[in-house]
């Protein structure tokens, strides 16, 4: 999912060039339409990617949208974390990292099943749980 803003257009162009289909939307622009498309895409057996802290952050503060999509589509969540030995960091709210050539990249993953995520919990409690799990994985939090 890519922001529906003008800034998301360049990223959509890159993804299209790479052969990756994108869904445009954010909380402020075309959000409900994007959520319906994400749920439909998951139910059709495809994967989707959502930056859980949104397009404006704050960094590592998970918004409930990704969990809403997981619940509605009955899909598990795959948490991803990447650490780079050498990277250039952008001066942005999320300190976006661009790994330098020959940098060692460490990837961490954790799968949370839909059943584990929502058993007896509301959306806010589930969101807080996922945020804590992601923070456990992250070196720079």
Please describe the structure with a list of short key phrases separated by commas or semicolons:
141 residues; two-stranded antiparallel ribbon; 5 helices; 38% helix
Short synopsis of the structure:
This protein has a domain of 68 residues.
Structure, explained:
The structure is a single chain. The chain is of the alpha+beta class. The chain has a domain at 74-141. Helices cover 38% and strands 16% of the residues. It has 5 helices and 4 strands. It has helices at 8-18, 31-43, 65-73, 114-118, 123-137, and strands spanning 77-84, 87-89, 97-99, 105-112. The longest helix is centred in the C-terminal third of the chain and has 15 residues, at 123-137. The relative contact order is 0.14.
Order the strands across the largest sheet as they lie in space.
1-4
What would you call the shape? globular
Instruction: Please give the largest β-sheet.
Output: 2 strands, antiparallel
| Strand residues, percent | 15-25%
Number of strands: 4
Average pLDDT, all residues: 85
**Which consecutive residue ranges, at least 5 long each, have pLDDT under 50?**
none
Order of helices and strands: HHHEEEEHH
Number of contiguous helices: 5
Rg calc: 16 Å
Question: First CA to last CA: what distance?
Answer: 24 Å
Question: Which structural class should the secondary elements be placed in?
Answer: alpha+beta
Q: How much helical structure, as a percent, in the residues?
A: 25-40%
């Amino acid at each position: 999912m890519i922001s529906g803003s003008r800034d998301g257009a360049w990223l959509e162009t890159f993804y299209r060039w790479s052969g990756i289909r994108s869904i445009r939307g954010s909380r402020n622009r075309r959000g409900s339409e994007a959520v319906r498309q994400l749920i439909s895409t998951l139910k059709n057996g495809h994967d989707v990617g959502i930056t859980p802290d949104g397009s404006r952050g704050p960094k590592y503060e998970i918004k409930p949208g990704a969990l809403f999509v997981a619940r509605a589509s009955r899909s598990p969540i795959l948490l991803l974390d990447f650490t780079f030995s050498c990277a250039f960091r952008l001066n942005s709210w999320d300190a976006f990292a661009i790994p330098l050539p020959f940098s060692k990249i460490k990837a961490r993953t954790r799968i949370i099943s839909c059943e584990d995520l929502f058993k007896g919990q509301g959306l806010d409690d589930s969101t807080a749980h996922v945020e804590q799990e992601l923070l456990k994985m992250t070196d720079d939090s």
